[in-house]
Amino acid sequence: MKNIILIAPPGAGKGTQAKMLCSKFNMVHISVGDLLRSEIEKGNDLSESLKQRMQSGKLVEDELILKIMEKRLNESDLDNGFILDGFPRNINQAINLDKITDKIDAVIYLEVSKEELERRIVGRLVCKTCGASYSELIEELMPINNNICDKCNSKLEKRIDDTVEIFNNRYNTYLEETYPILEFYKEKNKLYTINLLDKDEIFNEIVKIIS
Questions:
Q1: pTM for the model
Q2: What values do phi and psi take at 180, rounded to 5?
Q3: Beta strands in 128-171 (DSSP E)
Q4: Is residue 1's pLDDT more than 70?
Q5: Strands (E), the chain
Q6: What pLDDT was estimated at residue 37?
Q7: Confidence band of 116 (pLDDT split at 50, 70, 90)
Q8: What does the pLDDT average to over 151-172?
Q9: Active-site residue numbers?
Q10: How far is CA 6 from CA 42, 44, 112, 146, 190, in A?
């Protein structure tokens, strides 16, 4: 089984693809965003610092991210493969990831236009109970009942960082910090680019790559 990295701008659907792949292949989804939000919920001094950076759309310091990821990648539940979602986000992280593990087999880049990404993020609704994601702007992704999860009937919420201003900050940061690492992995012959929008078509392409 392959260990893969999913790279994409904010709102491109990395989390959705990761969940579909985990369901099919019993892989482990390692989301930096989820790990950081878990830290925020602890309510300590570090939590407040992380919250402020995420609300401003800025990236968290490499040293902290690398420490969190090294700990996670050394845990014992990764035998069936893992999917890195949201990491690495810059060249320094990519270089240091090579020092943490030499088991990255493929890097998959999901290419989506800025206009489509903004529409997805600004309208995004999430269920904190089961993790399902919906939209209040995209008709086919709207919940059946307003602000209620179709799967578990819990109340849907907007993430604190899903605003136009924060999206623009995150997207600009992505262009400056993350986009250059595509060349890094291209030189290693590990990069695959997918520029489809339909989630099932994207999923089928990823399955071909990791199979």
A1: 0.78
A2: -60, -20
A3: 133-135, 156-157
A4: no
A5: 4-7, 28-31, 82-85, 106-110, 124-127, 133-135, 156-157, 191-194
A6: 82
A7: very high
A8: 92
A9: 14, 89, 124, 159, 170
A10: 27, 30, 13, 31, 12
